[in-house]
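Onboarding guide, step 5: your first structure request.
Type a short instruction followed by the sequence, for example:

Predict the 3D structure of this protein.
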Amino acid sequence: MVDECVSAYLDMSEQSVHKQFKVTQIAYRGYTELGLDFFYTVRSFKLPVNANFTVNLPSNYLNYCKVGVFNDRSEVIPLIYNDKLTFFDDLQPNRAAATEDSTLFSPFLFSNLIFYNFWNGSVFDSLYGIPSGAPFVGSFKIDNQNGLIVLDENFCYPYVILECICTPDPKQGTYYLPVQFKEALIAYIGWKDIQMLPSSRRGSAGDKAQRRKEFYNERRLAIARYDPIRLEDAYENSLRNQRLVVKS
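The system replies with structure tokens like these:
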């Protein structure tokens, strides 16, 4: 836990509990920085689709990993990210009508050698290939400012599955830290505790540089322990690189 790192640093630096508030704030900053890069877990949400083809993002949402729907094998079939979708009127109930213009007709969308909205006589479908083992199910775009997922108007499911990175829940009151990053967070606290202090007090330039170096070294060790190299991953990366070379 983060509180354990705070207590450990206060003991190591021989500071009193009067410094606990300051050190705790520094620890949460370090926790956020390390968590965003490495150990914030991916959470899954099943979210209802609004009548105007938008979906409200969770309040603790940071960044999406996958947006899609389920298939019959409990797999998430991803939607295609569509940067052509507009955010215009996405807070209004009549967004669909406000963003349609029937005078401009695009018979197909070409992406990755697949015609995604080919009209087969009754519905739009893919013409070449079936992405991710399922027909094309729709496209989306993220409106971070308004906290929405914007869907295309051909989307026909009442829900979407959102897999995303979220901030810790502040209501829990306890922030858990992977044990691999404990020493890195303590080193971060030690560095930031004196970073802004003038050299005339207890923050010499050499001490600041040494503590900064120690933090990045502990961070490097934590990453190696948290995400070790596996032979299977190395083999997959090697095959992927070979395919890229052949294509190029």
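Each response can be followed by summary notes, for example: Confidence is low (pLDDT under 50) at residues 104-116, 127-134.
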